[in-house]
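pipeline/complex-builder :: batch 7 item 3
reading input block
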Amino acid sequence: MVGLSYAAVPLYRLYCQATGLGGTAGTGGGAERIERMEPVRDRRIRVTFNADTHASIQWNFKPQQSEIWVVPGETALAFYKAKNPTDKPIIGISTYNVVPFEAGQYFNKIQCFCFEEQRLNPQEEVDMPVFFYIDPEFAEDPKMAKVDLITLSYTFFEAKEGQKLPLPGYQ
Amino acid sequence: MSTAMNFSSKSFTPRPPDKGAFPLDHFGECSAFKERFMECLRHSGYESAACRQSAMAYLECRMDRQLMANEPLEKLGFKDLINEKSEEKPEKS
């Protein structure tokens, strides 16, 4: 699992470069969809939160809530928290995973803290929000009929100073 | 996203967030709003629907302090809360 997650960062980079999906903030499709979508009240889903750090990064990183109950079609906010307990600044970069895999296609992050370098100064602690929604189409997919638990996992890695990570779009 | 019939593929492809990454709130400018939101979650049994006002307030805080790109709240899924607000107060403060 760790290996898969570790590979996800460069894989994501390749995927984004190939499909050009990075940096398409505020595309009509995304924002309009959010504005128009209606909550599917009879499909309550429990979203649980995991936080991992790769062995190389010394941050303390954890979710601020272990779970949240949502419905498809309604935006939701959740928080993680990260602290750098060392006496040196550390730059981290994160990727995420969604389980069950098949639910991942319906899990839409509007904004979060991932795929971009985040620098924490010595002893600094910050809140890290995730703003997301589960697509209403989730409720219409027969394969998702028995899914009432989705787990979101973030993993932080250390990014070395001066290392150029060509993640597209986000400045 | 269209529902592709992925018969064999069990792999997960992470996707970028629609609006990119939140800048870090290094100075805790919106921590109070976050606390209010977390308090609401704790009291409501972690029910997201019960705490949408607080979530909206947190995001508004970020927007006010350039910690989030300005976006009409309807486009962030809060159109029902905006309509309520404008019904209660004829003047938006």
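note: The domain at 2-159 of chain A is CATH 2.60.370.10 (Ctag/Cox11 (Pfam 04442)).
queue -> next item
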